[in-house]
Amino acid sequence: MSLAPSTAAALKSSAVMMPYCLEWDLPTGPLRLSEHSPFSFPVDGQAAEFTPFDGNYGVLGAVGPISDGVTAEVPTTSFVLFPPPALVNTVTAALSAAGKRRVRIWEVVLDPITGRPIGDAIPLMIGQSDVPTNTVDKGVRSLTVTVLSRFARFLRPREGVRLNHGTHQRCKPGEKGMQFMQSVSRTIPWGSSTPTSSLSAAQAAAYARLYGSTYFGVTK
Length: 220
Prior knowledge:
With 220 residues, the chain is α+β, with helices and mostly antiparallel strands. It folds into 2 domains: 150 residues, no CATH class; 56 residues, no CATH class. The protein contains 5 helices and 10 strands.
Protein backbone atom coordinates (compact mmCIF):
# COMPACT_ATOMS: atom_id res chain seq x y z
CA MET A 1 0.00 0.00 0.00
CA SER A 2 1.38 3.39 -0.98
CA LEU A 3 1.33 6.16 1.60
CA ALA A 4 0.30 9.75 1.08
CA PRO A 5 3.35 11.98 0.39
CA SER A 6 2.80 13.94 3.61
CA THR A 7 2.60 10.71 5.63
CA ALA A 8 5.74 9.28 4.01
CA ALA A 9 7.63 12.52 4.72
CA ALA A 10 6.48 12.57 8.36
CA LEU A 11 7.75 9.03 8.88
CA LYS A 12 11.25 10.20 7.97
CA SER A 13 11.34 12.84 10.70
CA SER A 14 13.28 12.34 13.92
CA ALA A 15 10.16 12.38 16.13
CA VAL A 16 7.17 10.30 15.05
CA MET A 17 3.94 9.64 16.96
CA MET A 18 1.94 6.70 15.63
CA PRO A 19 -0.96 5.74 17.91
CA TYR A 20 -3.52 3.07 17.12
CA CYS A 21 -7.19 3.84 16.85
CA LEU A 22 -10.19 1.61 16.26
CA GLU A 23 -13.83 1.74 15.33
CA TRP A 24 -16.17 -0.93 16.65
CA ASP A 25 -19.67 -1.02 15.15
CA LEU A 26 -21.81 -1.79 18.21
CA PRO A 27 -25.63 -1.91 18.35
CA THR A 28 -25.64 1.40 20.25
CA GLY A 29 -23.47 3.09 17.61
CA PRO A 30 -19.81 3.09 16.59
CA LEU A 31 -17.26 3.08 19.40
CA ARG A 32 -14.20 5.08 18.33
CA LEU A 33 -11.17 5.01 20.61
CA SER A 34 -7.58 6.19 20.21
CA GLU A 35 -4.37 5.73 22.16
CA HIS A 36 -3.81 9.48 22.16
CA SER A 37 -5.60 12.77 22.67
CA PRO A 38 -8.74 13.36 20.57
CA PHE A 39 -8.29 13.71 16.83
CA SER A 40 -10.36 13.14 13.72
CA PHE A 41 -9.90 11.95 10.16
CA PRO A 42 -12.28 10.96 7.34
CA VAL A 43 -13.97 7.56 7.61
CA ASP A 44 -16.27 6.54 4.76
CA GLY A 45 -16.20 10.11 3.47
CA GLN A 46 -17.15 11.78 6.77
CA ALA A 47 -15.05 13.19 9.61
CA ALA A 48 -14.91 10.74 12.52
CA GLU A 49 -13.79 11.76 16.01
CA PHE A 50 -11.59 9.36 17.99
CA THR A 51 -11.23 9.91 21.72
CA PRO A 52 -8.97 8.37 24.38
CA PHE A 53 -11.86 7.66 26.78
CA ASP A 54 -15.45 6.48 26.58
CA GLY A 55 -17.81 6.71 29.55
CA ASN A 56 -18.99 3.10 29.20
CA TYR A 57 -16.07 1.25 27.61
CA GLY A 58 -13.17 3.10 29.20
CA VAL A 59 -9.83 3.36 27.42
CA LEU A 60 -8.03 1.45 24.69
CA GLY A 61 -5.22 -0.30 26.57
CA ALA A 62 -3.43 -2.10 23.75
CA VAL A 63 -3.70 -3.44 20.22
CA GLY A 64 -2.03 -6.77 19.60
CA PRO A 65 0.06 -7.79 16.58
CA ILE A 66 -1.69 -9.12 13.51
CA SER A 67 -0.99 -12.82 13.09
CA ASP A 68 -0.90 -14.14 9.56
CA GLY A 69 -3.30 -16.97 8.81
CA VAL A 70 -2.10 -20.24 7.25
CA THR A 71 -3.98 -23.36 6.09
CA ALA A 72 -7.09 -23.57 8.29
CA GLU A 73 -6.56 -20.25 10.06
CA VAL A 74 -7.24 -16.63 9.18
CA PRO A 75 -5.41 -13.42 10.17
CA THR A 76 -6.30 -12.33 13.68
CA THR A 77 -5.47 -9.63 16.17
CA SER A 78 -6.84 -8.45 19.50
CA PHE A 79 -7.31 -5.31 21.53
CA VAL A 80 -7.68 -4.62 25.24
CA LEU A 81 -10.22 -2.32 26.87
CA PHE A 82 -10.14 -1.03 30.44
CA PRO A 83 -13.77 -0.16 31.28
CA PRO A 84 -14.72 1.70 34.47
CA PRO A 85 -14.57 -0.91 37.28
CA ALA A 86 -18.23 -0.49 38.20
CA LEU A 87 -19.32 -1.23 34.62
CA VAL A 88 -17.10 -4.20 33.72
CA ASN A 89 -19.78 -6.87 34.19
CA THR A 90 -22.43 -4.82 32.45
CA VAL A 91 -20.15 -4.07 29.50
CA THR A 92 -19.05 -7.71 29.22
CA ALA A 93 -22.66 -8.93 29.11
CA ALA A 94 -23.64 -6.29 26.55
CA LEU A 95 -20.71 -7.07 24.27
CA SER A 96 -21.31 -10.83 24.49
CA ALA A 97 -24.94 -10.32 23.50
CA ALA A 98 -23.99 -8.01 20.63
CA GLY A 99 -22.42 -10.89 18.67
CA LYS A 100 -19.88 -10.47 15.91
CA ARG A 101 -19.47 -6.84 14.88
CA ARG A 102 -17.21 -5.08 12.40
CA VAL A 103 -13.94 -3.76 13.77
CA ARG A 104 -11.59 -1.46 11.87
CA ILE A 105 -8.12 -0.63 13.11
CA TRP A 106 -5.84 2.14 11.86
CA GLU A 107 -2.45 3.57 12.68
CA VAL A 108 -2.19 7.35 12.49
CA VAL A 109 0.85 9.59 12.11
CA LEU A 110 0.42 12.63 14.36
CA ASP A 111 2.15 15.98 14.31
CA PRO A 112 4.13 16.01 17.61
CA ILE A 113 3.35 19.70 18.12
CA THR A 114 -0.32 20.04 17.16
CA GLY A 115 -1.40 16.44 17.79
CA ARG A 116 -3.30 16.38 14.49
CA PRO A 117 -3.09 13.56 11.92
CA ILE A 118 -0.66 13.99 9.05
CA GLY A 119 -1.87 12.62 5.74
CA ASP A 120 -4.18 9.62 5.62
CA ALA A 121 -4.72 7.08 8.36
CA ILE A 122 -3.02 3.75 7.65
CA PRO A 123 -5.59 0.91 7.64
CA LEU A 124 -4.29 -2.20 9.38
CA MET A 125 -7.26 -4.54 9.58
CA ILE A 126 -10.97 -4.90 8.93
CA GLY A 127 -12.48 -7.82 10.78
CA GLN A 128 -15.21 -8.97 13.11
CA SER A 129 -15.14 -9.16 16.87
CA ASP A 130 -15.34 -12.39 18.83
CA VAL A 131 -16.63 -12.91 22.38
CA PRO A 132 -14.72 -10.69 24.85
CA THR A 133 -12.65 -12.25 27.62
CA ASN A 134 -12.88 -10.74 31.08
CA THR A 135 -9.45 -10.71 32.76
CA VAL A 136 -9.01 -10.06 36.48
CA ASP A 137 -5.56 -9.08 37.72
CA LYS A 138 -4.28 -7.41 40.86
CA GLY A 139 -6.18 -4.15 41.05
CA VAL A 140 -7.10 -4.28 37.34
CA ARG A 141 -9.97 -5.70 35.29
CA SER A 142 -9.83 -5.65 31.53
CA LEU A 143 -11.61 -6.98 28.46
CA THR A 144 -9.65 -8.64 25.67
CA VAL A 145 -11.45 -8.81 22.34
CA THR A 146 -10.22 -11.04 19.53
CA VAL A 147 -10.69 -9.73 15.99
CA LEU A 148 -11.01 -12.27 13.18
CA SER A 149 -10.50 -11.50 9.53
CA ARG A 150 -13.65 -11.33 7.41
CA PHE A 151 -12.22 -14.31 5.51
CA ALA A 152 -13.18 -16.48 8.50
CA ARG A 153 -16.52 -17.13 6.81
CA PHE A 154 -14.73 -19.17 4.13
CA LEU A 155 -13.83 -21.70 6.83
CA ARG A 156 -17.37 -22.17 8.11
CA PRO A 157 -18.77 -25.43 6.67
CA ARG A 158 -22.28 -24.13 6.08
CA GLU A 159 -21.10 -20.96 4.35
CA GLY A 160 -17.99 -22.35 2.68
CA VAL A 161 -19.98 -25.02 0.90
CA ARG A 162 -21.91 -22.31 -0.92
CA LEU A 163 -18.71 -20.58 -2.02
CA ASN A 164 -18.05 -22.94 -4.91
CA HIS A 165 -18.11 -22.77 -8.67
CA GLY A 166 -21.51 -24.42 -9.12
CA THR A 167 -23.34 -22.12 -6.76
CA HIS A 168 -21.56 -19.07 -8.13
CA GLN A 169 -22.62 -19.98 -11.68
CA ARG A 170 -26.23 -20.10 -10.54
CA CYS A 171 -25.93 -16.58 -9.17
CA LYS A 172 -23.57 -15.11 -11.78
CA PRO A 173 -23.65 -17.25 -14.96
CA GLY A 174 -20.41 -17.01 -16.93
CA GLU A 175 -18.41 -15.36 -14.12
CA LYS A 176 -15.34 -17.55 -13.39
CA GLY A 177 -14.19 -16.06 -10.09
CA MET A 178 -14.64 -19.34 -8.19
CA GLN A 179 -13.67 -21.73 -10.95
CA PHE A 180 -10.68 -23.02 -8.98
CA MET A 181 -12.19 -22.80 -5.50
CA GLN A 182 -10.49 -25.36 -3.26
CA SER A 183 -11.10 -27.02 0.11
CA VAL A 184 -14.87 -27.24 -0.16
CA SER A 185 -15.81 -30.02 2.26
CA ARG A 186 -18.81 -31.14 0.21
CA THR A 187 -20.62 -30.05 -2.91
CA ILE A 188 -24.27 -29.26 -3.44
CA PRO A 189 -25.74 -31.58 -6.10
CA TRP A 190 -27.65 -29.83 -8.86
CA GLY A 191 -29.69 -31.25 -11.71
CA SER A 192 -31.76 -34.41 -12.13
CA SER A 193 -29.12 -37.11 -11.60
CA THR A 194 -28.67 -36.37 -7.92
CA PRO A 195 -29.15 -38.22 -4.62
CA THR A 196 -32.61 -38.35 -3.13
CA SER A 197 -33.39 -35.21 -1.16
CA SER A 198 -34.85 -35.09 2.30
CA LEU A 199 -36.97 -32.18 1.08
CA SER A 200 -40.52 -32.86 0.06
CA ALA A 201 -41.45 -32.46 -3.58
CA ALA A 202 -43.47 -29.36 -2.67
CA GLN A 203 -40.48 -27.74 -0.93
CA ALA A 204 -38.15 -28.52 -3.83
CA ALA A 205 -40.66 -27.22 -6.36
CA ALA A 206 -41.06 -24.00 -4.38
CA TYR A 207 -37.27 -23.58 -4.41
CA ALA A 208 -37.22 -24.05 -8.18
CA ARG A 209 -39.95 -21.44 -8.65
CA LEU A 210 -38.06 -18.92 -6.52
CA TYR A 211 -34.62 -19.40 -8.05
CA GLY A 212 -35.47 -20.55 -11.55
CA SER A 213 -33.06 -23.48 -11.54
CA THR A 214 -32.95 -27.18 -10.91
CA TYR A 215 -32.55 -28.37 -7.36
CA PHE A 216 -32.38 -31.96 -6.19
CA GLY A 217 -34.03 -33.31 -9.32
CA VAL A 218 -36.92 -30.84 -9.54
CA THR A 219 -37.03 -28.40 -12.45
CA LYS A 220 -38.98 -25.26 -12.89
